[in-house]
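A quick aside before the break. I want you to see a complete sequence-to-structure record at least once, exactly as it would be stored in a machine-readable document. Don't worry about memorizing anything.
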Amino acid sequence: MRATEEIALLNLQPISMASESHHKENLHNLQLEDEGQHRNPSEVKMSQIVLPCHANHCGELSIGQLLKWMDCTACLSAERHAGCPCVTASVDDIYFEHTIGVGQVVNIKAKVNRAFNSSMEVGIEVSCEDLYSGRHWRVCQAFAAFVAKRTDANKVQLRQVVPCTHQEQVEHSLAAERRRMRLIHHDIMQDLLNNKTFQRSISEENHYEDVALPTERTRVESVELVLPPHANHQVNTFGGQIMAWMENVATIAASRLCNAHPTLRAIDMFHFRGPSQVGDRLVLKAIVNNTFKNSMEVGVCAEAYHGDEPLRHINSAFMTFEVLDEKGRPRQLPPIKPEPQEGQRRYQEALARKKIRLDRKYIISCKQTEVPLSVPWDTSNQVYLSYNNVSALKMLAAKNNWDLSSKKNNVSLYTVEESQSLCFRVEFEMEIPAQRAFILLSDLSRRHEWDQHYTLCKLLLRVDEDDFIYQVVTPSVSKGGKYQDFILLASRRPPCDSGDPYVIALRSVALPSHPPTEEFHRGEVVCAGFTIYEVSKSVSKISYYNQASPEVLPYISTDIAGLSSSFYSIFCACRQYLLDNIISTSAFTPSVL
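That is the input. The structure line, written in tokens, reads:
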């Protein structure tokens, strides 16, 4: 089936023909959307009824077919924004929360979150609808990167996305952080494989049981001839079609290991390395790389050739499968014995990907309230902790229910209280270039010069040029009590585009080399930091945010009801500190003490 023929009810919401009272909530939601004043101009919707031809042996929608629909919808959204042909560059991790049965409706919504020169991020939401009960539930969410390809020789320069709603503003802001992770995805894997601690943990696991199954029995190789129905409107092989073929051979490999029908649960982030065209022979190879008690990782590779030319690498992906019993619980899987050399390499890399996958899902996918404050920091999860740190501050700043509590001499205090959480924002404008304020406020080792709550701030570790770990010591609120210390990850980000703020985000982490001691009471920071907007070349708007934890609340309890003299004096001191150092041109290059 052609991609253009697969779109049903494009840009329409499916409405069941059941009684009004039975569907009151669903219809109300639809009316709110229809009556809304804003709709993202890049938004594209697709609705499909799952037919037997779309399903597997269990009567469930094939994930390969779902991937085709998702890629098609996202591509149409990207092209609507770009005004020219677009190709899929990469897809972030996808976690499939539910299966979809024959007769149910798949609703897919895609829209461009942000554009970067010639590439853009498209957010994809997939939900399922039961036409008989009227129930709706989420199936998965994905973020894909698309690249605009003009047919002429002119350089592509995409117009910027202008977020209008609160949710669009959040996604627009976070898209820059997700792009940062995509660009260093390969480096994260290599750094973990070279980590000595991880290498020791691998060597401890490399004891194969006598009953371990050889991975060679799971090897699958299949060839597909790319025909016109498999191509998109650019005559390139449809990215969704390639993903569907890859899912097919991966499922066969997983089935050969367990002699049962597996269920695909997740697909790791992957990148398309090059295009394929009509007439290509696409060679698909899959093999089980490792098993993890109740799940297995299958590696699958797609290569293309035409005539006598050598194979071209198109794509590689890693898929996680489970085998469910009669009650829907994951079955325990047999251990495997990898082949020497290449098989051993795949086995070890699967262990690394598992750790990265869990870190990414645990730290990034969870809500902020579900992530423990002091997540242990190490080199394998530093990128995801940094992402969580910056994204948490951006989401806090994007809240649209801030209340102005008080204002004194152009220093404003805002508060917001929700879900048993108290957050505050202190904001002022001053004459200082935004970049200079960013450099000065980024250096926490100098914060004691203006913040009386910082007795000591020592740089413990310079992670990279944008992330640093400090130990902060603060005096006790109660007389004669212990001093408190905090281990803080400071993540700083310059603007990605004009109109973006400078960001300095702070959150607690656990550093194994600096455990809690008897000398201090170990405190924790949920989310704090600065955003700095450029009002003009010489004027900046500086906002300080804090999601108050129990350890922070005593310091502000007397101030939060109004802008007291102590609270106000701290930010007056901050302003004076910036003015005193405005002339200096030295860059921020802290060293570990």
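Two observations worth writing down. The chain has a mean pLDDT of 83. The chain has three domains: 39-171, 209-370, 373-581. We'll return to this after the break.
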